Each structure stands twice: as structure tokens, then as C-alpha cells.
Amino acid sequence: MPAPAGRTATPDGDGTRTDTHCPYCALQCGMTLTPAADVAPREFPANRGGLCQKGWTSASLLDSPARLTTPLVRTGGELRPASWDTALDVIAARLTELQAAHGNDAVAVFGGGGLTNEKAYLLGKFARVALGTSQIDYNGRFCMSSAAAAGLRAFGVDRGLPFPMTDLAGADVIVLVGSNPAETMPPFLQHLQGAAAAGGLVVIDPRRTPTAEQANVHLAPAPGTDLALALGVLHATVAEGLLDEAYVAERTAGFDAMWRTVARYWPEHVERITGVSAADQRALSRRLAGARSAFVLTARGAEQHATGVDTVSAWINLALAHGLPGRAGSGYGCLTGQGNGQGGREHGQKADQLPGYRKLDDPAAREHVAGVWGIAPESLPAPGRSAFELLDALGQPEGPKAMLVFGSNVVVSAPRSQRVAERLAALDFLVTADLVLSETAAMADVVLPVTQWAEEDGTMTNLEGRVLLRRKAIDPPDGVRSDLDVLAGLAERFGQPAGRFPVDAEEIFTELRAASAGGVADYSGVTYDRLRAGEALHWPVPAVDHPGTPRLFLEAFAHADGRARFVAVDHTGPAEPPDAEFPLQATTGRLLQHYQSGAQTRAVPELAEAAAEACIEVHPDTAARAGLGVGDVATVESRRGAVTGRVRCVASMRPDVVFVPFHFPGGQRANLITNPALDPTSRMPEFKVCAARLVPADAEPSATQPEAVTQQKPVTQQKPVTQQASVELQKSVTQQASGTQQASGTQQKSVEQRETGGAS
């Protein structure tokens, strides 16, 4: 998009500007920032000089009235300003007390996929060394875990895109499964234009999203049937003699076992399951077979299911059958969502991992990392609970009594969010480190104000495995500290020796390099100097003179025999199919203007104005049957709860589907209704489909709606539903600390006006 009014694309008078990257999605668009916090796009392979609406407004949060600038400690039931020493002393004292009474695992740590590599690394080290707890996981478990598990078992390595995204420009066929980049990462659409021009852009999604509108072919399977569709297309590939037999024989294993399942899924049978015609299935198979260059890309729509790993495996099987992975100019990839969704899962904040993508239960991995940390390998705890189980165990007799949350708003974003709020309320002690008073922070006993993207150095790893340097451009407000400072200050209070927890990002990255050396995600050859020089370094980079590995698998896959694995998978359908009581299928996703739980973007006036509340998208006939019209307030009910929003009638919607975005708090939380059924391998919840019904908002509450949360802490800070109310609350606590408010930034052109500039 072009520069909006009120934001210049020129540097300040002294010519100073800082090359950096957008704080939002895994595209990590290149941008520059002036000392006056003026954003301008820059030429970078990911975005080619474009930014989306969120990128253009990203600097607005730096001086937002919603910004926290002083620690808050709950006193007398209310959050009140406190000094940093007081806040850290309170945290250390309470955690020490709880661990003394209940053991090390009484304290849990929860991270985020938006943390820099340095923060994710130090957070995992802090949990296992300073706290000695096994109870650590992060919100990426809800985003990427299914694709990661499927990639590991197929290829032996998990990297979102095992090729540079610029390779996509030369493709004549690209199949997007459960992905809507027109809203989630608009500049990415530039990489799809070649396939679209060739007539080969295929989008598979139950909704006719803005991405599907730009596709040459849109297939709309029923929610939860993507796996069956992949099996049907694969059946057609084999039955019509389109299998790349030479590739399968030379580079893969497991085809025969896989085929024994796929043989039962002829296209006509799959048509009855998915609603996608047998002719369209065969046409997709022929399209892939005839392509000179082709890619299959999956995203959250395929992954966020109780069978998410198998669903992704089914699409990888199809890609292997056509000989795509490990071939220059073709392949399979996964579109990572969060800003550091790739790097965030590589360096130790997951329950079962150590830095370098090492496994925590591997004795050699434990010995290597312990040596870097200067501790005994046996002192490292065992793997702990994954994210959903961890949140569900909070405050339980055998679960953690306290939790520290860094960079995640679990009250809105986690599955079964009503239950999560209950579990947080049951804790003896809750600490959050955040930019704004999110819905989770509002429940905390201590809230720590931390720096934002433009106020600190650090590395991120984007969706193609490229390590990027996000540079400090401006100083943070007085009273705000980095997460690295927080961890170092707490580690010191837990008796850790000086220097074990550095605060300088480059020093931490040097240690991360050593800890990752020899691992799957080997960063040992990446240095800040190389990144400052603009080198494109895709991991693994095993030596400082190594050029990096932009394309994996060209010679061999990462299994011992060098072969990729076909995996036999079967279709079972959604964990909760529709029935007479709940005849619809609810699915969730993102809106163009917002990101993740919306805690940040709802504080940007321009974005909040454009999408101020939750919508409920339904087919006009579905709305009419429920007695609803456009703009009416409706309720979507499931067996777990109910979510409200305004009706938006969309003629292209399937009549059996209702869509709810997940960016909004309070009674508009989509995760009040989603199904927490977990994938047995990845522990990914089934966000994308559950049985539901649609009723007017003033209808009698159903017997299946849960009772209100019984809070064990005052709810004064938990009431806000609208972003405006949340900002007002944040203003009040900030005013207690400083007595003044920063003026909001320069007003910008409306989102609607920007859309005329195109998706890029």
C-alpha cells in the first residue's frame, strides 16, 4: 500500500533512519523508521516495498495512550503503580515461597511466538535454570505445532518454507490450503501473481475469502474435511497414471502402506464427504501433474484440528506423489503465522525442546546445552505439559500455583477461554510482561511494562527460515524495560551468578549460537555483523563462512536414509459433527485490520474504528432462518458457551457454516465456543470447526451455556469488553504513575481509503 496521509516516507532532517522489520506476522516485512517514528516500507524480498494496514500503523502503538509505562502491583484488590525494584522483589518472594511449599513445578512460564529469538532462548533458560521448572510452553502450540509435527515425520526437519518465498514467483501452480493471506499477510499476495496469471492459483477454504476471490479456482470443502479432499486428489493422481513414479522410487519411502488407505477414497466417495465435486478433484490432480513448477502450501485452516497433523500429512503425501518437495522451483511449505513463529519454536520455550530444535529428552542434547549454560545435565528438568494441558492445570491440586506470561493474551487467544479465565483466577500468583493492559494482564498480581519492537535490538526468523535483525530505532519511554532486563533481574534475585543471564541482545545471541551448534536449527554461523551487512542467512548456518541453506532437501531429506516419508492417514472428520441440536459448523479466523488476540491492534484508533467489534458471517438464508438480518446482534452457541456479534450476510458462505473472528474480548471471544479437542501428536486444539447454532442475542440462554466465571480476584480490571473501555482502564493506571498522558500520534488516512492502494 502507498504511504498514507500523516505518515511520511522520508527521513528526518538529519537523515537518520533505521532499517528494521514489521512487528506483526511471519512475513517480517522490511521497513524503515525515523526517530520521529515515521514508518516507510523498504525493498525486501518478503514485501517488495509494500506494507499492509497493520504495518503502516505499527508505530502508533509506540506512543499510544494505552501503553503501560510503570510496573503495577495488586494491592488491596487493585493494580497500583510500583517501582521496578518493588515489583521484582514481590515476584521473587512469592515464587520462592510457592516453590518452597509445592516444589519447582509450582511455577509455570508461558511465552509467545512474537518474542525475539533472544527472548525465547533466555525465557527457556530462565525457566529451566533459574526456576528449575519443567512447566513451560508457548502460544505457538496453538499455531504451528501440527505442521511442525507433520514436517518432521515426512522430511525429518520442520522449517515453514524450506525454500525462499521468492521461488513462488516462478510457479505456474500454487495450491493454498486453509490460508487467507489477503487478510493475514497482504504483501505475500505479490508472490502468487505469477501462478494467478498462469491460471494456476488454487485456494481451498470453506469460505470465499478475499484470497479465494483472487484465485483461479476456489474449492470449498465442508469444515474439517480437508484431509479427505487431499486423499481424493491423491487417489485421482494414482488412478489416472499421474504419479511421479521415478521420484517416488528414488526419493521416498512408505508409498505402499499409504496407498492401502488412499485406495478407499475414490473421488466420488470424497465428493460425498467434502462437497467438492469428483471432477474438481481430478482437475486439481491433472493441474499439479502438468505444472512446470508447483507448490502446495498449508496454513492454520488445515492445522487447527484434532486431526491437524494427519491433515497436513495428507497434503504432504500429495506433494510427494507429484515429486514436488526437494525439487528446485517446486515444493511443499507451511505459512507460519506469528512474527517469530518459526524461531520461537526452535530455541527452548516449548515444553519438550532445547535450543537448536534439540529434544529435551535426548541425553546428548541435554549434555550439549548444559555445557553451554555451565550446569549439570541432570539438573535440567524433564519435558513438561504442552500449552493446553498447562493452562488447564493452573491452580489444580497437582498443577502450578503461579505463572509468568510473556507476550501472550491467553484469556482471549487460548482454547476454552472461559475455562482459562477460571484457571488464571485460581492461581495464587500471576505475573504478565506486556505492552498494554491486555485482558490477561488485567487479571495479574504484577504487570511489567516492556519494550516494543522499535525500542530494542533482536533477531527474528521469518516463515522461510531466514534470520533477520530487527534494530532499535528509538528509546523506550521512561519506566519501560526489556523482557531481557526482567529475566536478568529475576534470575539475580533467585541467586543466579552474575553474567549467566545477560541483558544485551547480541551477547545473548552469541550464546544462542553456541547452544544451537550442531542442532537441526543450527545458528552457529549467524552473527550480528553478517546480518548488519545484509546477508540472507537461512538456517542451518553451521559456520561463519557458510552461506546458509535457502533450499532444503535438494540432495536428500533429513532422515537417515535420505528419503522422505509417505505417512498413511485416514479421514475421521471433525471431533464434534453437527446434529439436530447444533446444526451448523462454526469456524474462526482473522480480519484484515487485527492481529492475534487484538490486544495491540485494538489500541490503534484507525484499526479499531475499521473493525470495532466481532462480526458473525453467515449465508443470508441461514440468518433468515434464525430470524436475523444484517447488523442484528446475534449469538452463536456451542456446547461450551456462546459468543455474540453483529450479523454480516455473505452470499458466498456455505449455508451450514458460521464464521467468527478471534480478535475480541469479553462476550465476543470466539474461543468461548471452540472445541478444545486436541490432536494426539501436536496437542493442537480444534479451533477451526465445532457444532453450533445461531440465535438472536436476546433469545433465552440455552441450558448448555456455562455459568459465569467465579473469580477469586477482584474483577475491576476484568470487566472491559470494548477496546475503548480497556484503553480507559490503562489510562487510569498510567495516570496514577505519571499524572500525565502522551498525546496520540498523527491521525492517519482511513483503512477504507488505503484499500484503494491494493493488497501490496
TrEMBL record:
Polar residues: bias regions:
702-750
Q: Which SUPFAM superfamilies match?
A: ADC-like, Formate dehydrogenase/DMSO reductase, domains 1-3
Q: Give the start-end ranges of region Disordered.
A: 698-760
Q: Which UniProt keywords apply?
A: 4Fe-4S, Iron, Iron-sulfur, Metal-binding
Compositional bias (Basic and acidic residues) at which positions?
751-760
A Pfam family that this protein carries is Molybdopterin
Q: Which CDD domains match?
A: MopB_CT_Fdh-Nap-like
- Span-the-membrane segments of this chain are none
Q: Does the keyword Iron-sulfur apply?
A: yes
**Domain 4Fe-4S Mo/W bis-MGD-type stretches:** 15-64
SMART domains, sorted: Molybdop_Fe4S4 (SM00926)
- In its UniProt entry, what is this protein called? Molybdopterin oxidoreductase family protein
Q: What is the lineage of its organism?
A: Bacteria, Bacillati, Actinomycetota, Actinomycetes, Pseudonocardiales
